[in-house]
Amino acid sequence: MMARKIKPWLLLAPILLLSAACTGAKEPVATPATQATGNAKPVATTTNHPAPIEALEARGLEVLGTFDAPSGLTGYAGLAGTDPVSVYLTSDGQHALVGSLLDAQGNDVGADAIRKLVIKPVSERTWSKLQDAAWVQDGKTTAPRTVYAFSDPNCPYCNLFWEAARPWVDAGKVQLRHVMVGVIRADSANKAAAILTASSPEQALTSNERNFANGGIKPVATVSAKVRADLNANELLMLELGFQGTPGILFLDEDGNVQRRSGMPQPADLTTVLGPR
User: Fold this and answer.
1) What one-character DSSP code corresponds to residue 118?
2) Which of 13, 80, 139, 199 is most buried, taking the most CB atoms under 10 A from its CB?
3) What Pfam families is this protein classified in (predicted)?
């Protein structure tokens, strides 16, 4: 698997106690916070948060909404990198607890809020970004299931995934969308450009995969500015979504939420990723 060095996302311990004295420079909040109360629809709230929440935001937490919590606590739902996080602010506004809050029956009291305020909207946001990326269609447009894969033309694990997916793709059950990147070898970008600029990118991709053992597709001599920009945007999206190697695979589960697989899935996991064979 291809590996790249990137700046680590915020790492939060399962339980972290912060005091109001630990505040720092506040990072801008990307989206307006919302509030969930019971079955009520989320409503817009201010993004000016108490000091412990701002301290977490300064460390990379993205707050997406608030929710009611027991024992005088206020719940905050957010993201640490690509991971959903629950934060509980004490009633005096001076401390924040990060992690799962369990009731007497062992239920996570923030689970519903995380699904409503984080998992669902972030899944929709992620899927929209993937749709707008520079990808190569692999399979029928009428296929009922779509799977995205960040792919490098020189990646052997991408080639293995392409091969493993043939029964689903050939049967018209799955359309793969290869989000092309050029990061593994010096000629990866030139090969990706050869695929993206071919008269039939799907046929060019197929040729690369079928002849992978013999070097794959012939790289173009020069990568155009347009294709270079597309490849750079795809790589940034790959890193944003938490992938440090290829293939980075994304698909929708039965609830319509985005699920990820980093690297070539295990054989037993293929039906989860690609659906029933």
Assistant:
1) I
2) 139
3) Thioredoxin_2
